[in-house]
Amino acid sequence: MIIDTQLASLFTAASLIIIGIFAVGFLDNLIKKVIGLAFIGDGVNLFLVTLGYKPGGIVYIYLPSMTVEWFAQNASYPLPFALVLTSIVIGASTLAVMLGIIIVLYKKHGTISASKVLGDNGEE
Which domains does the chain have, with CATH numbers? Predict the structure, then answer.
């Protein structure tokens, strides 16, 4: 049985989001929580790319030899790809800031355990 590409992408996106939610909700390590957030973002990006996929579609670059009607019927939808590109840039910046904050927390508390960092009531 051959699984459709779009259906396989949807299952992969859902599994990435579920793994990310598990990591953020149940793991104690701050770095693993950040990796879980990255998984959620990647799953959402894959979902958006899957929405823009069109079987047999062409890249949305209009060439002079094409008619407008043929191009409109055969081009894939470009908006999800533009959103994903923007999301990747924002996600990389946010990831760097979160990891920087974890470094500061490690220097202050000596641990990256979320329960120990949150359990410390500023007794210094």
Answer: 5-115 (1.10.287.3510)
